[in-house]
Amino acid sequence: MTDASSTLDPAAAAHRPLNKPHRVLLASLIGTTIEFYDFYIYATAAVLVFPTLFFPGADPMTALLASFATFSIAFFARPLGALVFGHFGDRIGRKATLVAALLTMGVSTVIIGLLPTHAQIGVFAPLLLALCRFGQGFGLGGEWGGAVLLATENAPPGKRSWYGMFPQLGAPVGLFLSSGVFWILLHFIDQDALLTWGWRLPFLVSIVLIGLGLWVRLSISETPEFARTVTKKERVKVPAAEIFRHHKRSLALGTFVALVTFVLFYICSAWLLSYNVKVIEIPFLEALRIQIYGSVIFAIAIVIAGRVADRVGRYGFLIVLTALIGLFSFSLSPLLQGGIGGIYTFVTLGMFLMGLTYGVIGAALAAPFPTEVRYTGSSLTFNFAGIFGASLAPYIATWLQATYGMAHVGYYMLAAAAITMACILAMGRDKV
């Protein structure tokens, strides 16, 4: 990658027209949709096919836990991706860095669809799977922060939460598409065909989505705020060093402000899918239908959050939501043990709360950092939160449910809500 001085002329940048709103919002939405589609097809396959194909010979619970362990690898790769892509995003610009992040994630996903299984190459199969999973996380580590900045740094005054909602909307759209493609597959092929070759198709379809994402992102200009930073010569040489030197408090508190967001989501998605399929043995199609339904509720709530947060303020909005999530944690055990109706009620409430908090968390995590280090700071915050809140959430919830019972999964969510509440209050209204 080259320095921005060769790709962004300061004089030209000062007079560059603003990107059209619809183009900005589409570019931020479609990129995160593709990235989260790639991420979630792995989560779905980690429940439905990877335990059998990559971890055979173990009992079903051990194989599932091993599959979830590879799922967690991406979350540990994401901060590294945030450091690398954040550096270049703050040095050469948001646009070029976002294209590179998209390609990194996309190529890793396509390769997963081509991998030989354990039956073909033995122990090397799960090792290659883990390596590709690392690549997915590395790419997503640079994707999220740039997409949020692409939206919020083009936002007019008073609309940062609304613009910041659009990249967040990529998460439920990606979840809908990833669950939907497996749901469609299972309507046309049986489970044997799915395990033999069908599971590869969702990963290979990513090629088409990558091409679409590149086309959209290459059509936009650099964000006005970054252009001004170049014009005023305000860029820093090593953004990560600046973050750890002058913004440690915002980084630490922001990480745990997002903690309950991640815990809630991965309990309501990856863990719930495994519980439905492996524990209470709901048919694959019904379990995927529940996940598709949840993604729709998730998306509706994100849109609501973008409108409401700009009117009432993100700080108070997040405090109320976190308290509601804490209360919701007590309903986990009775609802999930209340039959199919209880499961749908759990998904409705959980994904609605998830959408409300996720819809504003992007703008909230970017807010404390100045423009010259914002890509690095917001990306690191989001991805450190992924390690603490998401990386082991399906694993921990599976282990708690199997060892101590369903109520302890709710206590886990409650503890996350309590930590998040303390950090929101410590960060204060002006930093959120």
From TrEMBL:
UniProt lineage: Bacteria, Pseudomonadati, Pseudomonadota, Alphaproteobacteria, Rhodobacterales
Organism per entry: Marinibacterium profundimaris
Keyword Secreted listed: no
Residue ranges constituting the Major facilitator superfamily (MFS) profile domain according to the UniProt record: 24-432
Transmembrane stretches, start-end: 39-58, 64-85, 97-115, 121-141, 162-185, 197-218, 251-272, 292-309, 316-336, 342-367, 379-397, 409-428
Keyword Transmembrane helix annotated: yes
Major location (coarse): membrane
GO MF annotation: an example: transmembrane transporter activity
Top-level taxon of origin: Bacteria
UniProt GO cellular component terms: plasma membrane
Membrane topology, from the record: Multi-pass membrane protein
CDD domains: MFS_ShiA_like
Subcellular location: Cell membrane
Protein name in the entry: MFS transporter
InterPro entries: MFS_dom, MFS_sugar_transport-like, MFS_trans_sf
Key words of the record: Cell membrane, Membrane, Transmembrane, Transmembrane helix, Transport
